[in-house]
Amino acid sequence: MTTTGADVDRLWSRPAHQIVTGDDYVESLRGRDLKVHYLGERVPEVVDHPVVRPSVNAVARTFDLAVDEPELATAQSSLSGRRVNRFLHVAESADDLVMQNKMQRRLGQDTGTCFQRCVGMDAFNALFSVTFDCDATHGTPYHERLRSFLRYCQEENLVVGGAMTDPKGDRSRTPSQQHDPDLFTHVVERRDGGVVIRGAKAHQTGCLNSHWIIVMPTMRLGEEDRDYAIVAAIPVEHPGLTYVLGRQSCDTRAMEGGDIDVGNARFAGQEALIIIDDVFVPDEYVFLDGEHELAATLVERFTAFHRRSYVCKTGLGDVLIGAAAQLADWQGVGGASHVRDKLVEMAHLNETVYGAGIASSHEATQLPAGNFQNDALLANVCKHNVTRFPFELARLAQDIAGGLVATLPSERDFADPDVGPLLDKYFSVGPDVPTEHRVRMLRLVENMTMGRNAVGYLTESMHGAGSPQAQRVQIARDVDLVADMGLARRLAGIDRDPPDD
Ligand SMILES: Cc1cc2nc3c(=O)[nH]c(=O)nc-3n(C[C@H](O)[C@H](O)[C@H](O)COP(=O)(O)OP(=O)(O)OC[C@H]3O[C@@H](n4cnc5c(N)ncnc54)[C@H](O)[C@@H]3O)c2cc1C
Ligand code: SF4
């Protein structure tokens, strides 16, 4: 079914939001009548759903941080001539990219989860140069369209999701070789004034919490796949979009009442499958259509930005290190040499991730479009470390925490008049530490290492921004083995030194 009509026209008309605080943002999400499915039911109002709400809170924190610490979470944009939320800023210097990383670590510390806003930020940054390059080669009008849309998002302070990953079907086949052409999102019709898009996007971070999504191709494309080379912005409220919320481990604990067993009652991430059912997108929201040779450039520039955005996980690592250290202290092993060494190891791994990510931002260079692109090799090293190190941090945190992290009775049993006092007695570690504090800390470790926020801390670390092999392929491309062999031959006395050396 093709969706048209006055309601839809309103969505494309750039309605005003003027969001400043986290509360403004939460209000902006209400009453949108999104088609959201979860646990076999349609969700009437996502903002008030107990499973969804912690993910809304995590994004809301990005607004409040901008109010509380504008130097960290806002930036001066030459595009709109105003100070804008840093998540809507295209980097105008290497320092802008470094500040993104500092903000991401801080938000990871504040929320202990994925705060969802970086995919859109990295998409805008990548598209800024790719649309510029496309226009220079093909005479297309994409760059000015993107600038106009971004200006609108900056002025209204909107959340924009980045929708790159398709369901992909048989991974050994290209989009046009699939048994079902819709397994990758594509243009099914070109009309006067726009295109009609069909397909789906999988694992979409924070899509219910966004105002717009930007659909992008997920891989290198050939001429036969030109209909899959589509980049377009779509309002999240569009009736042609259906969302099926992904389950997260222990997610329904949020529906049990109480705030201990959830581990982190305030914050969580969010992913959903977005089904795109023949959505007509007006030309002014189309930023690439058919220029298949630019799909690889877009994916490479986007993933370079996004793979160093994964320093977000070092903020979560800080929380997990803190939880392990606190438990060790309370449980009487804080001074044990092996425990101290494990905490040092955790810090070492965490800072190794941060070091590569922030170095990648520092090493940015300016592109012809005027914006700054970070170093791709270091970004891939950062993300590759993220596919491993949080798993080791989680293992060490569980080692220090002890088996209770997996065997604790429920919050309701602690509240039970018969067994509650007994649980309090037998899980006590001393008169100075309330048993409830210990239980809360153990639940936080559970939450981050095998509960709801393990989705963000572990599986997202593994696959988000590309699975480990994707980074190895890129590292292989970027490392200059020919130059390295020359260095070795010279020092080994095989090649003569250059005459002026
Ligand atoms: C929590 C979470 C949040 C995410 N958020 C977003 C988001 O906001 N936006 C977005 O666009 N995407 C998002 N992603 C998607 C993410 O980018 C993908 O998960 C990732 O690219 C891997 O794709 P996949 O999950 O389909 O796994 P697959 O591609 O199926 O990978 C599984 C395994 O198969 C291997 N493999 C895949 N293809 C080939 C091949 N052709 N040849 C050989 N081996 C192959 C991989 O290396 C890997 O080992 C998110 C993912 C997660 C888990
Ligand atoms: S995984 Fe990290 S980089 Fe990606 S959106 Fe979440 S917080 Fe941002």
Secondary structure: elements and pairs:
Blueprint (H helix, E strand, L loop, with lengths): L5 H7 L9 H7 L6 E4 L2 E2 L10 H16 L1 H4 E4 L4 E4 L8 H18 L6 H21 L3 H15 L3 E4 L22 E6 L2 E12 L6 E4 L14 E6 L5 E5 L25 E12 L3 E4 L5 H15 L2 H19 L6 H26 L2 E2 L5 E2 L2 H11 L2 H13 L2 H4 L3 H5 L4 H7 L8 H15 L4 H10 L4 H11 L2 H11 L10
Parallel strand pairs: 1-10, 5-8
Antiparallel strand pairs: 1-2, 3-4, 6-7, 7-11, 8-9, 9-12, 10-11, 13-14
Bound molecules: flavin-adenine dinucleotide (FAD) and iron/sulfur cluster.
Iron/sulfur cluster binds next to helix 6.
What do you see in this structure?
- This protein has 501 residues and is α+β, with helices and mostly antiparallel strands.
- Helices cover 47% and strands 14% of the residues.
- It is built from 19 helices and 14 strands.
- The protein has helices at 6-12, 22-28, 53-68, 70-73, 94-111, 118-138, 142-156, 295-309, 312-330, 337-362, 376-386, 389-401, 404-407, 411-415, 420-426, 435-449, 454-463, 468-478, 481-491, and strands at residues 35-38, 41-42, 74-77, 82-85, 160-163, 186-191, 194-205, 212-215, 230-235, 241-245, 271-282, 286-289, 365-366, 372-373.
- The strands form 4 sheets. The protein has a 6-stranded mixed β-sheet, with no helix packed on it.
- Helix 9 packs antiparallel against helix 10 (337-362).
- The longest helix is centred in the last third of the chain and has 26 residues, at 337-362.
- It starts with 5 loop residues before the first helix and ends in a 10-residue tail after the last helix.
- Bound molecules: flavin-adenine dinucleotide (FAD) and iron/sulfur cluster.
